[in-house]
Amino acid sequence: MICLGIESTAHTFGAGIIDDKGKTLANVKDSYTTVSGGIHPSEARRHHEAVCDKVIENALIDADIKAHEINLISFSQGPGLAPCLVVGMEKAKELSKKLDVPLVGVNHCIAHLEIGRLLTKAKDPVLLYVSGANTQVIAYEGGKYRIFGETLDNGVGNFLDAFARLLGIGFPGGPKIYELALKGKNYIELPYVVKGMDISVGGILTNLKQKINSGSYKKEDLAYSCQETVFAMLIEVAERAMAHCEKNELLLGGGVCCNKRLQEMCNKMCNDRGSRCFIPLNNVMVDNGLMIAWQGILEMRNGTKKLNKVDIRPYWRTDDVKVDWR
Ligand code: ATP
Ligand code: FE2
After folding, report:
1. Cis omega (within 30 of 0) for bond into 172
2. Is 106 touching ligand 1 by the criterion CB < 6 Å?
3. pLDDT (tens digit, 9 = 90+) per residue, 209-250?
4. Residue 291: CB within 6 Å of ligand 1?
5. 2-112+284-320 matches 123-282 in fold
């Protein structure tokens, strides 16, 4: 069985192709970017509409297969921005009809975890998922994927991008802040906001803004201190979830986890507690179609799924997903 998966929750329009043995055949994407940083949903939708056919065509070329060899179409049903999700769903419906193959909508956050399990061989990990809009600690417990911790306001990626805008260093901010932080030497104290299992970054951004405006701090030191503080918060909640669930594997996902300093801190925390840290390649940690294709395979492999209503689910919660593939 070969599945083509379509991702379109936010910035990225992606198409991935994978077979039921888990062999990657293609993973192509095109991402909408802005100079100023913020995502404008209707502009992102126009971007996706403009590139979708080409991305899918290139995925078929990379996979070296013809469209009629596809047996299943999957797409990211949510959570995400409605105007973006609709483009992926419409494309998926169109292809499924044209090729006369089944269609399945999947959950984006869970797909991040499942592709990580497939490619890193992690068995039952706690996922630290840190992207632009999402920041969640997810684990499989009692027959469901549950969120053990999350941000109470903004995703860490969007927070870092906003901080980079304040510093005037461009978009996307994550990689630029990382470079700047390498040159930072002095740790400047910032608010450290962990509430139970959750984190919050809004107050830290306000504090950073005040510090930038005061003109008394070096950009490098602020970037360094920001990373050290916010990443420590992520490590704390991830570690607490691991302890609570008694799991000894940590898996990383989401664009922010491409950050080498965050990876180093995750590795250290795992080593200290005798656990293992699994880090997929960057191109599967950021949003991608491959994870959607694999999730489609997982959910349809047994051919049991009833497909009645197929629609987008912009606010779909991870713990609302019925798990019947594990
Ligand atoms: P969603 O939240 O729906 O998953 P997204 O498009 O915001 O969507 P990602 O592509 O996973 O998600 O992540 C984007 C974030 O990752 C941005 O904030 C960006 O700055 C950060 N990022 C991407 N690459 C790197 C990198 N190499 N180092 C550090 N940060 C990075
Ligand atoms: Fe994502």
Report:
1. yes
2. no
3. 999 999 999 999 999 999 999 999 999 999 999 999 999 999
4. no
5. yes
Whether ligand 1 lies within 6 angstroms of the CB of 80 is answered as: yes
CATH no., domain 2-112+284-320: 3.30.420.40
CATH 3.30.420.40 fits 123-282, yes or no: yes
- What is the Cα–Cα distance from 204 to 225, expressed in whole angstroms? 11
- Secondary structure E strands in 119-210: 126-130, 135-141, 144-150, 194-195, 198-199
Judge if pTM exceeds 0.90: yes
33-68 pLDDT, tens digit each: 877 666 789 999 999 999 999 999 999 999 999 999
Substitution site in 30, 286, 290 for ligand 1 pocket (most atoms within 8 Å of beta carbon): 286
- Interval between CA 210 and ligand 1 midpoint (Å): 25
Q: Is the CB–ligand 1 distance for residue 175 below 6 Å?
A: yes
